[in-house]
Amino acid sequence: MGTTDISPAAQAGATAHLPQLHEPRNPGQPLDLDVIAAQRVNTSAVERRCATLPGRRSVKKDHQAAWLLKAITMIDLTTLAGDDTPGRVRRLCAKAAHPVRADILEALGMGPITTGAVCVYHEMVETAVEALEGTGIPVAAVSTGFPAGLSPFPLRVKEIGESVKAGAQEIDIVISRRHVLTGDWQALYDEMRAYREACGEAHVKAILATGELGSLRNVARASQVCMMAGADFIKTSTGKESVNATLPVSLVMMRAIRDYHRRTGYRIGYKPAGGISKAKDALVHLALLKEELGNHWLSPHLFRFGASSLLGDIERQLEHHVTGRYSAAWRHPLG
Ligand SMILES: O=C[C@H](O)COP(=O)(O)O
């Protein structure tokens, strides 16, 4: 197996992982309906820009390996299946703590790395917290009646508290899509504020379920409302909608984050989730992130991929980089 050392700077980037929440936390702002009304999206310009991105931005060889290692540190390694078991969650946690085979890391001249977090349903939080003890990897719980968000409101709020009590440090809530579709921004704001409050010290990611919001303009408006109501991250999808994370949606949400930062000084994290399963998709997302939000966001405290199978493909690409051969996908289970 050949050795192909990655530059110290790239290594430093790849190993920067949680906990490192240096950012002052977004306290939220009063709901500003003028800002919401002013949101505009030129859909065809957004689509054109996204269509040309993969051709304009491609990284090769050592640079690609360094970016892929970096991507791993920003994955919320996820299992959200009805047949999840404690055994599966423990295996997922072991994978999160050692996401790449030691011989591959060694050949790349890299020390140990971990994923950004492990993301599970509430029932699996305790198991994950126990399995990750001593690793520094936080557990994220999906909450508030995930994925539809249609259980009784008091139960949705209570569910957050239960997951925090069980040890989740991050809570991924789902918003009520109907508030967006009916333009009831006050209701969306109030809901999000209640969720943020219930999270306490745990960081809250607002899942917009963008595939169900009807338009990119609605995506921009819902992003602003959730940030005003105190979201730490905005996230595209549950992974259960028929359309999940797309590049146009990412572009719109990243620009919403940039706009919020300009207006308030607070940096909000971004999490594309659902359907991102190939290393090349991750690279395109990172290129877009760097172009739209800059290097500051290239860190697990401001960017995550929500993904259940992306890690497996990245590992295959890294193995190919080191050995010149692709291994079968089944050799990289769980992520
Ligand atoms: O939040 C994470 C998503 O549910 C994962 O979706 P995926 O299984 O399509 O990668």
TrEMBL record:
The keyword Magnesium does not apply. It catalyses: 2-deoxy-D-ribose 5-phosphate = D-glyceraldehyde 3-phosphate + acetaldehyde. Keywords: Lyase, Schiff base. GO terms for molecular function: deoxyribose-phosphate aldolase activity. InterPro entries: Aldolase_TIM, DeoC, DeoC/FbaB/LacD_aldolase. One of its GO terms (biological process) is deoxyribonucleotide catabolic process. Its EC number is 4.1.2.4. It is an enzyme of class 4 (lyase). Pathway: Carbohydrate degradation; 2-deoxy-D-ribose 1-phosphate degradation; D-glyceraldehyde 3-phosphate and acetaldehyde from 2-deoxy-alpha-D-ribose 1-phosphate: step 2/2. The keyword Protease does not apply. GO terms for cellular component: cytoplasm. Belongs to the DeoC/FbaB aldolase family. DeoC type 2 subfamily. This is Deoxyribose-phosphate aldolase. It comes from Celeribacter indicus.
